[in-house]
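Per your request, structure below.
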């Protein structure tokens, strides 16, 4: 698929379509080729998200795009911003209903068919027709998605696995009806040259038709559930931006929909509200929580003239902002585009199956036809000829092939769920087998993501606990993360806080107040102390310099005009981080720390955990670029992150892994979600994914080898359809049993 579209290209002529009816990656490729034949159009069709992104076509001409998709045999509707994908949930529910109906009918039908076929004394008049009537809902209604896809492919001169499934199911049913109408010979028959079977045992193959439908519907349902999570990234990003904005028009503040905001307009952002769009501060001073966008744990103090990003949170003071970018041009929207484009480049394990099926299906159909013709030519009779041809179709019916991926995925995902590892789909497994580099976000991944008291410094010999109590007393009612860290540190030491009065926030600098003992207290950064005319002792300057080099935040305490102490505030390293990084290295993986935080802080964390490389001070879009640079160097990259700023990088990486404590955007962009709090879950997830991938590959090798070996036996009449159906079932049992071994996976090895 095309990958050369940029995040900001064609924004004015960009159309997105929801596509329905695709059953494999070949469908997406077919639609993409059709769309790209239109003049001036560059289209990318994403099978995982069931969405097409079309550049170069004005929105008013969307009907031409929809007509092109429909001409290819699929349905399309234009994506409406903020709306749910039309009918997608209903399609998944309908697929689940078909699966349940098929399962409820198949199991009793199969039991009855086998018992009646092999036990003549239990048969009753019309028993064959009773079984046929019972199979009709499964063969026609439950298997309708396969029949519809096969017909669509036939109209366009193509074949797929759906073609073989549809023919196998319909052939088994048709042969059963024909055999019932013609009647069965009243003598015993031989299976595979030996063994006796009661008369009529080789006439009905309804259980084979029903079982194939049920098993493959189960695989299709698993795939649909995985695709649903893949398409949720855009919706999650959209929810981060506020739906309304307080615009100042004609001097009056008005609450209007976000879509009506224009470039150059002024809007008000109150404390606790999300900033509507990218812009410049005109009035006010405040602390902005940008952790989700930049990875920086400490809020950024902004004042007049400074720029803010849409989707970030205003924490303290009221602001008036002038909108500089709106809609698709904002940085938040650009992240959505980057994530979507990266997802479109993802491959799937199922792609291997689709490629093989491209030649396997026509070959099987040709072999079945040749078998029928040859048997008729040698005078074997229509029953024998049709039986041999049917045996070829049934033995070649890719039941085991269809089960190879979903059964291993189900067991692997189930075991992962028990261990706090959520694997979204086969793409993650495929990527796990080739990665050689793990990129780790800092804030919220290697660290806790919350500001905490890391140390107390007394410059005049005063008890450090006494200084901490004084600072916490003034900061007691503060909502600033630094203030909360001081109070939490004092509470952890069980300190008694003095009563404070006349407390006043000094935006961008700190806070001041008076204590019950008559002391005047100022808590803030070095700039505030110098602004107040307080002399900084040499010890204070050394602490500030050391903290700056290490990337920590330092606040100082002045009592009655004398700077007496300082406090280190830092994001805390997770206890499990060093051990997890060491396990990754033992797996043969190179580790890279990637963060938007300051270089000093990043390098300090990098030294503590033992990563091979540190990349710091990068913007959100640059994170994805760093991943692409590593890939250009020949690296296969896994990305571990938690914030909005990680979304594009998670989707760009060969394998995206999101920490569950992060944002919805990050989790929906990732291939694997890490629920367990310990960072040891990262190497465990890679090991489990690799184990599951190995199981899928083993299943596929068996399924292909089985078909290749069994088809000649069926074509030469060595297998009748019943035995062919039984052998097909044994192949499926092997695949399922092999997949069940994943239940024994243990973490921590």
């Amino acid at each position: 698929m095309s990958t050369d579209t940029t995040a900001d290209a064609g924004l004015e002529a960009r159309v997105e379509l929801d596509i329905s009816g695709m059953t494999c990656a070949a469908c997406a490729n077919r639609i993409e080729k059709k769309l790209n034949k239109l003049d001036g159009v560059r289209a990318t069709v994403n099978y995982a998200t069931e969405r097409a992104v079309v550049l170069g076509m004005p929105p008013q001409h969307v009907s031409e795009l929809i007509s092109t998709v429909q001409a290819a045999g699929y349905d399309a509707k234009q994506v409406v911003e903020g709306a749910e994908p039309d009918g997608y949930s209903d399609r998944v529910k309908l697929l689940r209903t078909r699966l349940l109906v098929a399962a409820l009918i198949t199991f009793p039908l199969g039991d009855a068919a086998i018992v009646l076929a092999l036990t003549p004394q239990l048969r009753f008049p019309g028993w064959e027709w009773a079984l046929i009537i019972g199979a009709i809902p499964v063969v026609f209604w439950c298997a309708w998605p396969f029949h519809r896809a096969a017909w669509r492919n036939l109209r366009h001169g193509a074949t797929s696995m759906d073609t073989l499934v549809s023919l196998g199911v319909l052939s088994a049913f048709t042969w059963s009806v024909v055999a019932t109408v013609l009647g069965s010979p009243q003598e015993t028959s031989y299976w595979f040259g030996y063994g006796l079977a009661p008369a009529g045992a080789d006439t009905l193959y309804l259980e084979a038709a029903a079982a194939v439908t049920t098993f493959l519907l189960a695989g299709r349902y698993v795939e649909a559930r995985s695709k649903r999570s893949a398409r949720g990234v855009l919706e999650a990003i959209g929810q981060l931006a506020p739906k309304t904005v307080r615009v100042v028009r004609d001097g009056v503040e008005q609450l209007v929909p976000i879509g009506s905001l224009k470039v150059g307009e002024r809007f008000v952002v109150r404390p606790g509200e999300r900033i509507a769009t990218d812009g410049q501060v005109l009035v006010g001073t405040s602390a902005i929580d940008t952790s989700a966008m930049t990875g920086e744990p400490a809020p950024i103090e902004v004042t007049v003239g400074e720029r803010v990003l849409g989707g970030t949170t205003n924490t303290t003071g009221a602001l008036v902002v002038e909108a500089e970018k709106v809609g698709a041009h904002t940085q938040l929207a650009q992240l959505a585009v980057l994530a979507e484009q990266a997802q479109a480049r993802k491959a799937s394990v199922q792609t291997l199956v689709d490629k093989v099926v491209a030649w396997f299906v026509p070959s099987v159909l040709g072999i079945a036809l040749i078998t029928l013709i040859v048997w008729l030519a040698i005078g074997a009779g229509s029953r024998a000829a049709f039986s041999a041809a049917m045996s070829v179709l049934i033995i070649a019916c890719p039941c085991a092939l269809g089960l190879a991926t979903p059964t291993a995925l189900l067991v692997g995902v189930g075991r992962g769920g028990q261990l706090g590892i959520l694997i979204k789909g086969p793409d993650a497994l495929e990527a796990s087998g080739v990665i050689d580099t793990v990129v780790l976000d800092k804030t919220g991944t290697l660290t806790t993501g919350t500001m905490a008291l890391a140390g107390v410094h007394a410059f005049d010999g005063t008890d450090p606990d006494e200084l901490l109590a004084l600072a916490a007393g003034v900061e007691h009612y503060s909502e600033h993360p630094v203030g909360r860290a001081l109070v939490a540190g004092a509470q952890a030491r069980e300190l008694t806080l003095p009563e404070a009065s006349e407390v006043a926030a000094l935006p961008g600098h700190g806070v001041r107040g008076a204590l019950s003992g008559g002391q005047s207290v100022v808590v803030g950064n070095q700039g505030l102390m110098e602004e107040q005319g307080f002399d900084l002792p040499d010890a204070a300057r050394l602490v500030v310099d050391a903290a700056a080099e290490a990337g920590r935040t330092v606040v100082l305490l002045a009592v009655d005009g004398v700077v007496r102490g300082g406090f280190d505030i830092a994001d805390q390293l997770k206890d499990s981080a060093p051990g997890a990084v060491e396990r990754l290295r033992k797996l043969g993986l190179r580790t890279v720390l990637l963060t938007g935080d300051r270089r000093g802080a990043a390098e300090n964390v990098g030294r503590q955990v033992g990563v091979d490389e540190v990349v710091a001070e990068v913007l959100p879009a640059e994170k994805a670029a760093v991943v692409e640079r590593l890939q250009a160097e020949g690296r296969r990259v896994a990305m571990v992150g938690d914030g909005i700023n990680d979304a594009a990088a998670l989707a760009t990486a060969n394998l995206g892994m999101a920490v569950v404590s992060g944002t919805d955007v990050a989790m929906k962009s990732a291939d694997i979600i890490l629920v367990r709090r310990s960072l040891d879950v990262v190497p465990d997830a890679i090991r489990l994914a690799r184990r599951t991938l190995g199981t899928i590959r083993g299943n596929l090798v068996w399924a292909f080898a089985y078909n290749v070996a069994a088809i000649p036996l069926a074509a030469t009449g060595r297998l009748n359809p019943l035995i062919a159906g039984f052998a097909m079932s044994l192949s499926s049992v092997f695949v399922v049993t092999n997949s069940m071994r994943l239940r024994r996976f243990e973490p921590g090895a």
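The first strand starts at residue 14 and ends at 20.

Regards,
D.
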